[in-house]
Amino acid sequence: MYEIAVIGCGVIGLTSALSIQERLKNVKVTIFTRDKSPNTTGDIAAGYWEPYMVGDTPPAQITRWGKATYDYILKLWKEGKAKEAGISLIISRIISDRKDVENPFWKDVVLGYSNLSREYLDKFGKVGNRKFISGFEFLSFTWEASIFLPFLEQKFLMNGGVIVRKEIRDFKELEDFDVIVNCTGLDAKDLTGDTKLCPLRGQIARVSASWMFYLFLIDSEHDRSCYVIPNIHCVILGGTSQPAYNLEVDEVDKKNIFRNCSELVPALATAEVIKHQVGLRPGRERVRLEIEIKPGGKNGLLRIVHNYGHGGAGITLSIGCAEDCAKLVERALNQTNLRNKL
Ligand SMILES: Cc1cc2nc3c(=O)[nH]c(=O)nc-3n(C[C@H](O)[C@H](O)[C@H](O)COP(=O)(O)OP(=O)(O)OC[C@H]3O[C@@H](n4cnc5c(N)ncnc54)[C@H](O)[C@@H]3O)c2cc1C
User: I want to staple 116 with a disulfide (CB 3.0 to 4.6 A). Which of 65, 135, 213, 283 is the partner?
Assistant: First the structure.
């Protein structure tokens, strides 16, 4: 029986832990985490499926990881698990006032992709006196972390997994484990010293607007970017993406979010606010999903698999990355001559 330690119990840690349990039968998986749901970055997210803010991660990888998640959510939905897993199927429209916007490279992954007509763009922009140049729609999902994280946690525990509430300050604390999996999101910066990680500060408002049934994102070159994403118990209005650690709700951001969203849906201006929230996306030039071998640990080797830096798409890419992470754990366990490579 191999002992695997996963650090972090956000969407990336939990999906990775489950995937390891499912792929490798002779393992015991223990999650070490400082916080868990409802106090992870994913709990602030809208849970919307779209590859977003993923730096220069190669398109082929994003497409493959995103597709695995899309197919997984669709499968759960078809199995009738929408309610317990926090899944809502929804048509998403992404609309831009920029010239020369290309179709997204991942468009073949999703169902129902089509470009929006000139007539639709004109009618949509008319309310706010906006001129939109291009747009597309497709069938997306919201997969709400505050519902699916407890759902996945139960599955993990039922499979024999263990969760320990503990902050890990050094990988050496876990040197008795065969493999350590690092899913600490933005905090991987402290644990690994990775200077490529930086916060992408996201401020949003959760409002009560049960009459709001459609989802749209506006991509604007005139400081009018915004999104309106319905969730089961609220609607999320966003948002910002700033390279900052500030977790305070900013009044200017608040004003801009309401101005931009209500320009296109006027009733949102007076929607009751449930809460304003700020979260830090783990921004990186590309997702880090790889094996690192250090001296120390069992047989003189500390085998670490890193899985962090998913920017604004941790939920969107989670299942694909978790599957690859499990393969890397298997590879790390099977490598017998690693010592020579140090
Ligand atoms: C406003 C906002 C909206 C978003 N909307 C979307 C969206 O619609 N769709 C989407 O796909 N993504 C969205 N995202 C991005 C998504 O939330 C993140 O990419 C994702 O949550 C990152 O997950 P993670 O598990 O890597 O990190 P986290 O959720 O931050 O989890 C890290 C875990 O590691 C633990 N940890 C950290 N350091 C240590 C340590 N030293 N020892 C022990 N435990 C430790 C933490 O306690 C936590 O459990 C959004 C983000 C924000 C802020």
Answer: 135
For residue 335, the model assigns a pLDDT of 76
CB atoms within 10 A of CB 233: 12
Hey, what are 251's tokens?
């009044």
In this structure, the residues whose C-beta lies within 6 A of any atom of ligand 1 are 7-13, 32-36, 40-42, 44-48, 167-168, 183-185, 187, 191, 202, 204, 239, 279, 281-282, 308, 310-316
| Local structure of residue 42 (DSSP, 8 states) | H
Atom of ligand 1 nearest to the CA of 166: 43
First to last CA, the chain: 26
**190 and 199 Cβ atoms separated by less than 8 Å:** no
Per-residue pLDDT at 297: 81
Residues 191-214: tens digit of each pLDDT: 999 999 999 999 999 999 999 999
Ligand 1 centroid to 191 CA: how many Å? 15
**pTM exceeds 0.85, yes or no:** yes
DSSP notation for 208-256: E-TT---EEEEE-SSS--EEEEE-SS-EEEE---BS----SPPHHHHHH
Residue 185 Cα to ligand 1 midpoint, Å, equals: 6
Expressed in angstroms and rounded, the spacing between residue 10 Cα and the centre of ligand 1 is 6
What is the CATH number for 246? 3.40.50.720
Distance (Å, rounded) from C-alpha 12 to C-alpha 308? Answer: 7
Structural domain including 20 reads 2-341
Residue among 172, 184, 237, 325 whose CB has most ligand 1 atoms within 8 A, to mutate? 184
Q: What is the pLDDT of residue 336?
A: 58
The pLDDT tens digits of the residues spanning 240-252 come to 999 999 999 999 9
In which band, very low, low, confident or very high, does the pLDDT at 340 lie, cut at 50, 70 and 90?
very low
3-state secondary structure of 45: coil
Q: Which of 32, 37, 40 to mutate to test the pocket of ligand 1 (most atoms within 8 A of CB)?
A: 40
Q: Check if the beta carbon of residue 3 is closer than 8 Å to that of residue 30.
A: yes
Q: What total of structural domains would you count in the chain?
A: 1
